[in-house]
Amino acid sequence: MMRLLAVLILVYGQTEARAAERFQDCDFCPQMVVVRADSYQMGTPLGAYEVDAASGEGPPIRITIGRAFALSRAEVTVAQFQRFTAATGHRRNERCAPASPPSAGHPVSCVNFADALAYSQWLASETGQSYRLPSESEWEFAARAGTPWPRPWGANNSFEGVSISLTCDHANVYDIAAQAIYPRSWPYARCDDGFAAIAPVASFPANDYGLHDMVGNVREWTADCFTASYWGRPPDERAWTWGGGCEQRVVRGGGWLSRPTDARPARRHGVPATARNPDLGFRVARELSDAESPAPKATLRRITLFTADVEAAKAFWSQGFGYRVSAEDPNFGNAGQLQRLGLPPDARLHFVMLAPANPAEPLIGLLGTRGGEFQAPPRVNDRPWAGQALVVLKVADLELTLAKLADLGVPLPNEVEPLDGPTGIRGYGTTVITPDGTSVIVQQLNDP
Ligand SMILES: [Ca+2]
Ligand SMILES: [Ca+2]
Q: In Å, what is the CA distance from 20 to each residue of 13, 81, 206, 290?
């Protein structure tokens, strides 16, 4: 039987897909969608097919959105912007003709950065709420809606052609009809999205966060100054700005005139803040009070188990829970790690990363040794179950999973416990102790 030596590293993220929470502060205010706090990888790996070196979208950076915020469900419309210009006398002096005769439900276009900022500030003063432009880290987080791949609708199939051909079902882009009327030198999506130019907002399905047209229709101003690199940017929700030398602001999402590779959540452009274009608009963000912020739901993302028998642990997790080995290194670890673990310099670590069958489940790292025994490493704060290693597994069939565990010799409780509490989890759960000493709560979700 395996022996648990120590356990460390519990990383809590937050919720996945859930019903969008919406509000509207006044009858002429944009409808807002609450976006929960979480962390994500911003940008695109260098060498990926989609990446354009000039756009500075790689190498990726880990961003923690520390606070929930609200983002307008759609781009700011002509009607919403007209309310502002009527109230304030705000003028746009430069000539820029919208692509279609502007109707109330179209997104406002031909607005420069100052116009967009002025609208958000006016809305803040009208409502007493903290309206502003979104930062680009907030914007990409909301546009990705929990997806790590190039386009939110592309599932995990990042093959450029497949993903682009699906674009016309999800976004107003530079398609066959647009190319026929507005011929440009750059590539177009070989599909028909139904709009040769600008489309009324929310003509296309919302993403998983309840937001429309994050990709496509009009490109959108963000609050950030543009630099062609993420090097040094805040690793959180803050906009990266500075006084002086911020002539270019970051524009996101691509629009009805953008080539396919530009119509992606990670793509970024620097655009002169004074530019007004018929495919350039914006949406607004608003800060939430503590009372308005949804409580983050904790979900275990990764756990590392220190085990005396790596092979037995691999077998247990693969046979019991459908995990597969995604990486393995029998000669893992550097001098510093060995020292921290109390191992002699000639010892080696055996590292295995196990990937779950269900991507919502935690990754499990296994660490074993050759040539020495671990000292227990210092425990991190593994709230809310301090003092024990806990893995929560959500399974499709609880009875089948428990039967498998019984076959593997795991002692089981006689009855499963119904879950009924403030966790937001519906279904049943029960705790089992695995051979490596880890407490596992096995849950069946009735409504996954
Ligand atoms: Ca189009
Ligand atoms: Ca857009």
A: 18, 25, 10, 18
